[in-house]
Amino acid sequence: MYRNGVLEKEGFPVEEVSEYVRDPDNTVWFDLCHPTQDDLGVLREELGLHELAVEDVVSGHQRPKVDSYDGHLFITVYGIHVDDGRLAPVEVDVFVTANALVTIREDERFDIGQVTRRWDATDGTLGANGVSFLLHGLLDYVVDGHLDYVEDIDGRIENLEEQLFDEDRPIDGRALQRAIYELRRDLTRFRKIAMPMREVLGTLLRRNQGLVAGTAMAPYYEDVYDHVIRVDEWLESTRDQLANLRETRLAQQGMRLNEIMKRLTGWAAIIAVPTLITGFYGMNVPYPGYGSGWGFWLSAVLIAGISVGLYAAFKKRDWL
């Protein structure tokens, strides 16, 4: 519980929340991690939360959004967590009243300690803005996590591009295809949680909820909104990069196949010459050199001469 931006009390049970929020100078933050139905029931009674908002918490897997109810807002966002190289977003639901903020985490993978440290590291005068200050710290941490993640994805794509054109290191085609597939899968999942954040911040900035518009916190929310736009633009750029990487890989495979077919065709033409000559000299009819030693040497010279001539001609045209 904060009073005029100064921490005064912590560690109290949720049953005391309604007592503290009666005083408009108090700001209460309450955090729940994977709460039970009973926990949510007590919270609903203490803060007068709408049943549909509480139902959204229970059902889970909500789209990032802002829902406005009589007396409070319900916000859903997703924090970034990577599990064994795979993106595993963590849902965080937020109830916002005039002087209370409730965060409900899906599990411990969302480090709420990072959020509190960010609050503590901020200029103390901003804490007097109450709930809008606390909500800003939470959203700023979430969006910064999105920005760090898309930057990491961009770096991984650049590494794949370097491998694609690195002639000193042979490319493991199967490993490259798997890496591209995993990146496309994670980007698709990330896009579902990152793109709606623009609407979330835009709603908080546009609507006159008395929470952001016209307050000292408005420029700070604008800064978070700017980061959201950066994430969106960077996300679209990485999607294009990944698509170009996949197309380039397919083009390389096609060019490689053409090179192989060109060489095979050249060698087939060279091999056809001795086949033709030996087949001609294998006929059981008289021909120049038939039954004579010089006939054998003539066929050998023809085979060697024509084959070498074809090889030189194909090599000059880069067919071999």
From TrEMBL:
TM helices/strands, residue ranges: 264-282, 294-314
Membrane topology, as annotated: Multi-pass membrane protein
Keywords: Cell membrane, Membrane, Transmembrane, Transmembrane helix, Transport
GO CC terms: plasma membrane
UniProt subcellular location: Cell membrane
Gene3D superfamilies, alphabetized: CorA soluble domain-like (3.30.460.20), Magnesium transport protein CorA, transmembrane region (1.20.58.340)
Domain of life: Bacteria
GO MF, one example: magnesium ion transmembrane transporter activity
Presence of keyword Heme: no
Family that this chain belongs to: Belongs to the CorA metal ion transporter (MIT) (TC 1.A.35) family.
Name of the protein described by the UniProt record: Magnesium transporter CorA family protein
